[in-house]
Amino acid sequence: LRSSLDQFESVRAIPFWAIACAAAFYLLLIGPFDYFLVQRLGWRVQWTWLTFALSVAAVVAAVLWAAGRFKGDQTAIRRIEVIDIDHESGVARGQLWFNLYSSRSQRCELAVAAPSTIEPPSSARRANADSAPPGDRAVAPMQSATDRLLEDQTLLAWQGLSGRALGGMDVDALWGEGAALVGYSAAAGRDRLREVPLPIWSSKAFTARWIRSVGPLVEAKLSDPARHLAGRLVNRSDFVWEDCLLAYDRWGFELGKLRPGEAAVIGTMSKRSELKTLLTGRRLVYDDSRDKYHQQTRPFDQTSSDALYVLRAMLFHAAAGGQEYTKWPLGRESWIDLSGLLPAGRAVLVVRAAGAEAGSQVVVDGRPQAASDSATIYRFLLRVETQP
Hints:
Layout: H1 16-41, H2 48-71, E1 76-86, E2 91-102, E3 106-113, H3 122-131, H4 134-137, H5 140-151, E4 153-158, E5 185-186, E6 192-198, E7 202-213, E8 218-223, E9 230-235, E10 241-248, E11 251-258, E12 263-266, E13 273-274, H6 275-280, E14 283-287, E15 292-296, H7 307-315, H8 323-326, E16 346-353, E17 361-364, E18 367-369, E19 373-385
Parallel strand pairs: 1-19, 8-19
Antiparallel strand pairs: 1-2, 2-7, 3-6, 3-17, 4-7, 5-6, 8-9, 9-12, 10-11, 10-16, 11-13, 14-15, 16-19, 17-18
Helix pairs in contact: 1-2
C-alpha cells in the first residue's frame, strides 16, 4: 500500500535512454565539438577554458529544465482512507495513509483534519440531552466530556520504510552524524508534525488515525431469522455511496450505488454470492483435458500500483484466502481485516464515498491541500437480529 501511494501521475521518471543520450552528448560537446569549434574559429587554445565553462553551464541548464518538466513544480498528495463506524455506539475510527511529494526543498508543518461531514451538529446533541428523561440528564455532562475526548484523539506519524532497502530506516548511513540536522518534532498531542524535512523532488509517507463520535450516517434494520439475511439500508449521509457491498457470514450482497436518501432492500430474492468469490473473482472453468469443471481464481497482482485494489484485498484478507491468496501477510496492518466479525453475526457494509469532503484533509503549513488522487472507504458495522 505504501509503495502504491508513491506513484504520482504528475511525476514522470526520466527514461534511461534519455539519460544515456544526454551523457553521450555531453562528452561529445566538451571533447570533439569543443576542439573543432576552437580550431574552426582560429582561437587560441586557451579559449577552450571559456567554451568548456559555457558548455557545462548550458548542459546544467538543460538538465534542470528537463528535470522540472518531468518532476513537476507543484506539491502533490496521494491519499487513501478507511473509516470504520460502529452503528450502535456511534463511534468512528479513521485510518489515513498519504504520500506527500515535494518539488522543492522545504520544511513544513503537517496536520490532518477529520471530515466534518460525519460529525453530529452540536444542536442535535443538545436536543438529545434536553429530550432525555430527568434521570438521564445527570449523565449528559459526562457524555459530552466523552464526546470531547473522542473528538480530540488524532495521531499523525511518519510511515518509514523498515529494513535495509533503498530509503529504509535500518540503513546505517541514515543515522550518521548529520541525522540530528534533518530531524522533526511532534506536537504535544501527537496530532501534528513540525519542521518535517522534504528534500527536492522526493516523497515521504505518513499515516494518521483519528477517533470521533458521529451522527447516524446509515439507517439499518437487518434480521436473519431463517439463515437468510433480510432488511433495509438507507443512506443518511450527505455524499454518494458507490460500489456498495454488504458482507454477512460467508455471503456478499452487491448493492451498487446509493445516493443520499436512497434505500436498498435485502430479501430472499436479492442476488447474493459467496464473499470469497466476489473478492477473488473465482469462477467455474471447463477443463477439456480432464473433461470436468474446476474452480479458477483470479491471481492477486502483487505488482499493482492501484492503491484501491491493494486496499480491497486488505479489508477482508482472511475471507479472500489470506496469505495463500495475496502471498503476503498483513503484518502491522492486520487490524484492518474484519473477516472475524462475519461469522459472529455482524454485518459489514463497505462503500466508497464520492467527493473529497467525505474524507480527511491533509493540512500543510496551516492550509488544507487538495489531493491529486484520493479514495475514501467507509465500513459500517451493523447489528443483525437473529431472533424470529
